[in-house]
Structure formats: C-alpha cells, structure tokens
Queue: 2 jobs
Job 1
Amino acid sequence: MAEIVLVPGFWLGAWAWDEVTPALRAAGHDVYPLTLTGLADRAAEATPDVDVSTHTDDIIRLVEDNGLREVVLVGHSGANQPVTGAADRIPERIARVVYVDAGPLPAGMALIEFNEPRKQEEWRKQVAEQGDGWQLPVPPFDPAADPDNLAGLTGEQLAHIVKLATPQPFATATRPLDRPTPPPDTPCSVIASTFTPEQVRMLADSGNPVFTPMAAMDLLHLPTGHWPMFSRPIELASLLDEIAR
C-alpha cells in the first residue's frame, strides 16, 4: 500500500478530497489531504507573499513531519506547480507525481501564462477590483458560462464548492517555479479529464512546450469536467489506487 498526499488546486482546501480520501483508505492506503497556506481553514494565513514556494514548502513539511517515503504525490489543476517543486526538492521521498487534469509547466513559466491573454487580463482585473490587489476571487462556477470545465457537477455540488472555496493568493499564479537543470527523473502520471491522451500527443507533436513533457508520461483518461474529485470521486480514487499499486 502507498502513502498518498492529495494537494488541491486553486480556491480549494483539503475538503476537496472528502469523497476520494475514504475510498483510498478503504483500499489500504495512508492518505494525507493537504490544505495549502492561505486557503480554506488556513485562510487567515493568506498574505500577498504567499506564492508557489510557500506552497512547495507546505508539501515538503507535510512529507517530512510525517516521515513519509515512497510518496505518491497528487496535484490537481493549479497545484501542478507546488507538487512539481516538492518533487524537485525531495526526490528521494517521492515515488511518483500524479497530475489531475494538469501537467508540469516549463521552467520559468508562471501559471497565469498558461491562460490566453484575455483570461490573464480578466484575472488581473478581478484581483485589482475585488481582491485588494493580491487575491484572485473565487469564480462563480456557473455551468452556463463554463460548461466544459464544470461538466458532471450537480447544482448541489456547485453550491457546495462556492460555499467552501476561498480566494487564491495571486502570487501563486504570477511567480514562476524555479527548477533544477536537469530536474530529477521522477515517474509521473497524468489523469486527464477535460482533454484526452491523444490530444496531449498531438499538441506535443506540434512542439507545444507545455504538453511535450506530458506526452512521455503515463497518460490516463477520466472523461468529465475539470473537477473530478467532485464529479467522479470514486472513479478518480480507483485510478489513483491503480497508479499507487
């Protein structure tokens, strides 16, 4: 059985894994869902200085304080940066990194740069007008405006997410991750939900620098929206169990 650390993406806390964690523990794994600095029950710790390095430190602290080794480190969406950073810094403790509907970004690339210019401008405007200049507000989670990413979610689930989600320290999106050259050769998997393994390979073949490293990873497909821990938690847990074994 494995030691599995679950890291939520933007706006979420450890609560995002509430339906995944019991299924993994029932399968015999030791599971550690993590709330990152400045989010959810740690919202009071939010400051303008909370960035990717802060969240990388959070993961490393959890692993080291619990004496974990051979860790399966799972990062959803925007957590791709800190899980990559943690795997870079403590490779001797990480057995595998699993990216959930995400992948590692090229060295020196901030997460905001993965978005189209229009979305980048929207985020910066929201931060300036609603986030005191340093917090990214919780999105409306409106399925009419974002049907693909919110696919599979019920009205009750959407309301639950909106109720518990908290603003994201914006520096986690605007500051890039410093990576060693070359990075450690840690095994990686991708559980793709809003894109397919075939699309990853096609984009990699076109020379896309984001998808090129992903094409060499173990690619699995869980077709649903961008939030599979809510829309298909049992299936997600089953895939993580399979990967961990």
Job 2
Amino acid sequence: MTDAPMNSNGQDRGKRTLLAARRVRELIVSGALTPGQRISERLMSEQLEGISRTPLREAFKILEAEGLVTIEPNRGAVVTALSVTDVAASIEVLIGLETMAAEPACEFITDAEVAEVEKLHKDMVQAHHDGELMTYFVLNQAIHQRVVDAARNPVLSRIYAAECARIRRYRYAGNRKNERWQEAVREHEHILDALRKRAGPMLREILRQHHRSGWAVSRKVLEQELGAVGGDTAGEAKRPRRARSASPA
C-alpha cells in the first residue's frame, strides 16, 4: 500500500501563505506599516507579486496569533497598536524569563549548541557591518531564543517566543539608533563569552542589563514616534513605505 500523493496546490498555497506572513511581518517590524494602520489587501497583493488574497488572509491569521495584527469586523487586518506602558510590561516579563533561563542554560547547553550560537553571532556581526538592520535583528532574536531553549524548559521557551513576537516591532525601533546598535553588538560578545564559560550568574546579569539598556533607547524612540504620529495611525492604510534594510540613523 502506497502513501497518497501530496496535494501540490495545497503545498504551493501554504508556501505562499508563509511567504506573505514573512513579508508583512517585516513591514510591521521595520515600521513601514504603522500601529493602528489598516492593511489593505489590494495594496498588499500588488506589492507581494504572485500572492493572491486567499493566502494573504491566511497570513493575517498567523500574524494575529503572533499579536502583530488584529482582525476587526468591517476593517480587516489592522496593525496592533500597543502603548509604551504595554511594551514596558512585556519587557519586564521577558527580562524575568530570560534571566530565569540563564543558569540552567549554562548547565545544560551542549558544545554543539554553543557552536550554533557562535555561528549566529558571527552572521549577526556581519549583518551589522553590512548595515543590514533587519537581518541583524532576526539573528539577534534567534540568539536570545537559543539561550532560553538551552534551559530545557519547553513552557518557558513557548511563552518567551510568543511574547517576543508580540512586541517585535517595538524592540526593533531601538536598533535604528546607530549608537545603540553598536553597543548591543558589544553586549552580545559578553553574552557569548558567558555561555562559553558556562557562567550562569554572570550570564543572568549580563542579560538583565542588556535588555534594560536596549529598552531605555527603544522607549525614547517610541515616545517620540507616538508624539509625532498623534491620532493618525488608526486611519485607512496608505501604500506601505518600502522597508529600509540599510544602516540606521
């Protein structure tokens, strides 16, 4: 008895859905789509060539589960808007989760897993050198997730990943400040060094300060953005600005 053939149409649609989710996610995280903005299906279908509205709507459901968009009756997908207070509360949770993971991560992490983090770090530094902010940010987030995963607590990993996804756009904002971007790279050198040494208490404190320093910059950026935008973010979406991948200001 042979297995039934895979449905190629279903596979293709699934790939298009994941592609659409990735591209819209990047537009939200980079700030090309702003909090409170309605995402026009027509404009997005035009921008994402080859993506019809059906996989795009499925992509919106994925992003809704991540907390990046909200699907509203009669409006469709809207970029989720969080207040600075909301994001600050999430940052405190992330600090707690990551510092909780630090010591068991150093206890359980394998040499192969450390090597994987070293490779991610090397690629992240290269992205910084090349001015590829989005690539840098994705690699940065992957490193932090690997540290948490090394603690061997699947519940901790799941909650951490979900909360990171929800405030991804707001954390990205701070890295647009060039001085913070450079400082964050140096801090990651210390994170990697603590992992190599399996120095749990050291890693815990490095991570705590790393996140607090990053949030201090991100908070100022967000407060400036919210002050400049005022009440305009809840309106109908204009054509999204092209996401910048070059060096931050």
